[in-house]
Write a structure and sequence with these properties.
2 domains; 13 helices; five-stranded mixed β-sheet; L-fuculose-1-phosphate Aldolase; 16% strand
């Protein structure tokens, strides 16, 4: 990475932190390496969170970012739509912090290029209570009355969202500043960081107040001889460790859930899976780095919250199909993200 590129990143990372830092702690907005933020400058550059890095990496360590050319990303989208390039082709990067040869832009970098100067994408648990149920459209109509928003049916994260927005722009002059992704999350974009944060907070507050959703508090994994552990009693709501494998691995509400848990949970310690459901001692043992363990805790909390709130509200959950899950596990971008988290 040359000095000019490094200078561009340093000039813009502070702007990126403005829409990243407020949502870096706990599991209510993002879990693990999920979610992403970006900012564009006046020279055609876009700085975006790197795949697998945490919001806190950007906020506290000035790293976990990738610089790309906005015009090149948009050209790449149209090349994919026309079949010129492959689905998972990544546009050439201009630079990254850390500059270690492993950094890649978030797999959702393409839709960022189509949106405003500042883009915030989260996996808000409050929104996902609604995104993952059959009554989502009516519930948003009630809670977000007076706001201009777009609801996108579930599509695989990444390029398919960008393709959906390209099609939307063929019939509409501009994309609403609020985008709600079924079985996925929320996107807010705009011309200023303050405006994006204000709109996002308004959406979260409306959802929480309209449907009486309590705040999801932060929870940390505890060190133990086996690595890390999480007492079942500490988890949100009424958690039954005997049925946890089905809840976490079987009934998939959103993409990150299956990426983290499919094939990685067992009630038999001999299986040596990343997550061991220790039923006799009523705890979950996690084998991996601290970053991976904390990400797992956040993901478990998010799944628990959505399930418990849906039960309380009498909602009918909508799960991802087996085909949706298979597609997700075939994406090299998802494998890369988990590999970064495990470092």
């Amino acid at each position: 990475m040359n000095n000019e590129t490094a200078s561009i990143i340093k000039q813009n990372i502070g702007f990126l932190q403005e829409i990243t830092a407020p949502y870096a702690a706990g599991a209510e907005h993002v879990q693990g390496g999920g979610g992403n933020t970006s900012v564009k400058d006046d020279s055609g550059n876009m700085l975006i969170k790197a795949s697998g890095y945490l919001f806190s990496n950007i906020s506290n360590e000035n790293q976990g970012v990738v610089l790309v050319e906005t015009k090149g990303v948009i050209e790449g989208i149209h090349n994919k739509i026309s079949g010129v390039t492959d689905y998972e082709t990544i546009v050439p990067m201009k630079g990254a912090f850390p500059d270690n040869g492993h950094s890649k832009p978030s797999m959702e970098y393409e839709f960022h290029a189509l949106l405003g100067k500042y883009v915030l994408h989260t996996h808000s648990v409050y929104a996902n209570v609604i995104n993952c149920c059959s009554d989502a459209d009516a519930m948003y109509q009630k809670a977000l009355s007076g706001l201009n928003y777009l609801i996108i049916p579930y599509v695989t994260p990444g390029f398919p969202i960008a393709a959906h927005l390209v099609n939307y722009l063929k019939k509409n002059r501009k994309i609403p500043e609020i985008i709600l992704l079924k079985n996925h999350g929320v996107i807010v974009h705009g011309a200023t960081a303050a405006g994006v944060n204000s709109t996002y907070e308004d959406v979260q507050n409306r959802l929480q107040s309209t449907y009486a959703m309590e705040k999801l508090n932060e929870l940390k994994a505890q060190e133990c001889p086996e690595g890390f552990e999480l007492p079942a009693s500490s988890l949100y709501g009424t958690f039954d460790i005997n049925t946890a494998q089905k809840e976490l691995e079987g009934d998939v509400l959103f993409p990150d859930q299956t990426i983290f848990f499919k094939g990685k949970i067992s009630q038999n310690k001999e299986d040596n899976t990343p997550l061991y459901l220790n039923i006799p001692e009523q705890k979950i043992e996690i084998n991996g780095s601290r970053k991976f363990a904390e990400a797992c805790v956040e993901m478990i909390q998010a799944v628990r919250y959505v399930n418990e709130q849906q039960k309380r509200l009498g909602l009918h959950p909508v799960w991802l199909s087996n085909n949706d899950v298979d597609i997700l596990h075939g994406l090299s971008a998802e494998k890369h993200r988990i590999a970064i988290l495990n470092k």
